[in-house]
Amino acid sequence: MPSSNPLPPKENALFKRILKSYEHKQYKNGLKFAKQILTNAKFQEHGETLAMKGLTLNCLGRKEEAYEHVRRGLRNDLKSHVCWHVYGLLQRSDKKYDEAIKCYRNALKWEKDNIQILRDLSLLQIQMRDLEGYRDTRYQLLMLRPIQRASWIGYAMSFHLLEDFKNALSILDTFLDQQQRLNIIDYEHSELVLYQNQVIQESGDLKQALKHLEKMSDQIVDRLTFKENLGNLHLRLENWNKAADIYEELIQRNPENTIYYKKLIEAKRLTKEADIVDFYMKYNEKFPRAMPPKRLPLNYATGEQFRILLDKYMRKALSKGVPPLFVDLRSLYKDPKKIQLIEELVLSYIESLKKVSKYCETDVGPKEPASAILWVYYYLAQHYDYLKQFEKALEYIETAIEHTPTLIELFVTKGRIFKHAGNPIEAYQCLDEAQAMDTADRYINSKCAKYMLRANLIKEAEDTCAKFTREGVSAMENLNEMQCMWFQTECALAYQRLGKFGDALKKCHEIDRHFSEIIEDQFDFHTYCMRKMTLRSYVGLLRLEDVLRGHPFYFKAAKCAIEVYLHLFDSPLKDENAEQELNTENLAPSELKKLKNKQRKAKKKAEQENAQAREAQVKRDQHHKSRQQGDVEADAPQLDELIPDKLARVDDPLEQAIKFLEPLQSLARDRMETHLMAFEVYYRKRKILLMLQSIKRAHQVEPSHPKLHSCLIRFLQVFNENQRNFDPAVLEVITSETKSLLSTKDAKKLNKEFLDSRKGSLKAALEGAIATYQLDNKLQKEALGLVMDIDHNKYTDVDIEICTEIYKNLRNGKLGACAQSQLDAFVAQCRKRYPHAEAFQPPQEIKAQPQTNHVTTEQDSN
Amino acid sequence: MADEGEDPVNGTSDENSEKSQQKKQAKYDSGAADLEKVTDYAEEKEISTQDVANAISAIGDRRNQAALEKQAREKELLKVLIKKEDVDLIVKEMEISRSKAERTLRENHGNVVNALISLTN
């Protein structure tokens, strides 16, 4: 049933040409043909032509007209599958996938066997992960088009994704059976066979997988993947000798791949550290130029052997001048004995190099290059920085800079030391210096921008980045367009520190949108991968997209957003207008007049700025339109503009926070902070069971985390206050679930137990102290006593962060009002311990902002 | 060459400057422009075989055992009696959708305490 209003042959031919033009992206031609039909008075309301015209207009970026035409077309021909299909495509281009699916279903009502519609429907279903619906649609497609390769692959894959391996495999078998009779062995076929093997492996039948792989060996052209899979299967099936042979071959092929060595050790079943070291020695002789057999034994060797190996390894690197030597060796620092040995060795180098330009005074042979001692200084600076001995680190880096004042790495390291010592300003100045030494180095440029953001210098950071961003567009905008997330995250954090919450939220939302966009971008691959037969990568992509928001980048941005929303809930921004009106009441008439004048001017200025912004927006839109013309997928719906002020004044900050929290709860469940933030949100909503949920999950991750104690105490407070109002079922849940979490329901008792059991930890002491004061403010002295004395080795976990946090709590009243003398005493202690940290500098040095407001008003009125 | 000579009118300097501007723009957009030219439309590859009919008959509509069992389980679930107040309580306390609350309650045989406990895990 094609249409209720069929066109005569001539017009029909034109209509077909519209379709062809659309498929080949020749939209202008399409419009021309549509016009030819529609100008005929008999067909000016022809539904399907109107719909196609609308679709074509949509591709040219004329969205409103597009909707108007498509809707009119549909109204004129409700029984046409073309109209419904087109409406679905339009909705799809607006990312309204649910609506689009409904349209496709309507279209299929009128033409149930239309391949194109079924195909489009299947794309939406896989995008929305309606896997069962996807399977059913793929079944229909296979029945309709059994001679198409994609039909078979799609149907098999739908079972694979549903983890129904048996059916997936039997379909692949049937299909490959057909293929093999043709004897075409090409890359695509080879990929298909490897995909089949992957499915067998995932079904858990490793023996079958191995059999299959060996049988198909001559059909697989990707020999590396073949070998790696073969080795892995032998290993998992404990065919030790065969596995060992294959990994030997693989090492021969690429002696730089560390995984091969680890697997070979596994296959040879070497477990004793000495044996493993011997193993690497053997391979070092065999492949004298390869790195892994030199570096990896350092992980296993101990004592004197470690010293000898390390000595050899370091000498080579230092003579050659390998800048990332420290980063390379950092993983050895888990072992304090190795740290000791490294330190002794490197210090001995300095002595000898100074005296005789050799690593050891008794060495024979030529002198080391003059740069060797420089790299030793450089290494030691990083070494002491890692050990948080910042004075020594600075001393060595200064010596190094004196030796060679032109080496960029030295300044970067100096900056990093200052950063770790708590001084972001000095840190950024070092990076700026480094950046100035080579302005064409993008890495240094980015690092410098990042350090600027750490020092809250947003404008400067943007200007720095602008050296590499596209001309003609503001750097901030270009960085957003390029999805430069590290910049945006650091920017959000800087705004958060500066108290510009709206701007911080804007950055967080921008990052959230990047993630949505990445999920959208998947769409193109549903057809592409199926066609190109890159099925293993395709399945990998689908699985990656499923957990996309578990990425650390998202976590960082979401954490910032949640913290800001929590802050906005605790202390909402005041309404600016109301505040001003309040002020005017206490003003003399003359001053009032002045003020009003000023306000009027400010308003005018703001309006001008707004107009400029609007103009810029229009320009941007045009720019986008011209760029996106003719691309169906790219003309994404115009998202609401993110306006900082609006974002900061939302009515429901907690609900907004939950939007960022939910992906973390499902995808970052193993991170303690997820549950601690969840608790903060639900505590403010007084949702006792959700508080319990957060506590239970946090307890699973890290039961001894000091912050968990604070959650437990507040949970008990809320519980004890509202006990009578709870539903009996809720009470029962709490009683049964807190048994293992809480030894007592008395918060004070719980707090005392906690403090007694965690005596050596300052972090625990702070949480305990806050609880002590909050539960009974008569005990302020005791509470302060716990945290005010950070010296005398009372605590083992003192660092800059915890001291800063204590200082913050002393000032914000969480521990009660503190006398200035007490604060000063505490800061003095911290300053003594961390002389570089900005947080503990005397206040007058930080707050040196000149008060020039008054002067500028004077100038304004002139 | 001859064509160019005969048509000097088109080569105004105005157009040239515009062109160079466009060129600059094009330099940045060239990658994107190339991409634009690619259509999503492609002929599907076909397998050439006479035995498709045989193969297809071997396929049939597969609903494996697991799927059938799942369906049966769904039916079982629907039979479980649940109280509206319980659903309301779950929705209010756990802030989840009604359908998810109902489902959890059914899975716990209508026992609201167990349902809530499973949701706090």
From TrEMBL, chain A:
Pfam families: NatA_aux_su, TPR_8. SUPFAM superfamilies: TPR-like. Keywords: Repeat, TPR repeat. This is N-alpha-acetyltransferase 15, NatA auxiliary subunit. PANTHER family: N(ALPHA)-ACETYLTRANSFERASE 15_16, ISOFORM A, N-TERMINAL ACETYLTRANSFERASE-RELATED. Residues 849-862 have a biased composition (Polar residues). GO terms for cellular component: NatA complex. TPR repeats lie at residues 81-114, 224-257, 374-407. The keyword Repeat applies. InterPro entries: NatA_aux_su (IPR021183), TPR-like_helical_dom_sf (IPR011990), TPR_rpt (IPR019734). Residues 595-604 have a biased composition (Basic residues). Residues 580-638, 838-862 are annotated as: Disordered. It comes from the Eukaryota. It comes from Ceutorhynchus assimilis (cabbage seed weevil).
TrEMBL record, chain B:
Gene3D superfamilies: DNA helicase RuvA subunit, C-terminal domain. It holds the Pfam family UBA_HYPK. Residues 1-34 are annotated as: Disordered. GO terms for biological process: negative regulation of apoptotic process; protein stabilization. Coiled coil: none annotated. InterPro entries: Huntingtin-int_K, HYPK_UBA, NAC-like_UBA. Residues 81-120 form the Nascent polypeptide-associated complex subunit alpha-like UBA domain. CDD domains: UBA_HYPK. It comes from the Eukaryota. PANTHER family: HUNTINGTIN-INTERACTING PROTEIN K, HUNTINGTIN-INTERACTING PROTEIN K FAMILY MEMBER. This is Nascent polypeptide-associated complex subunit alpha-like UBA domain-containing protein.
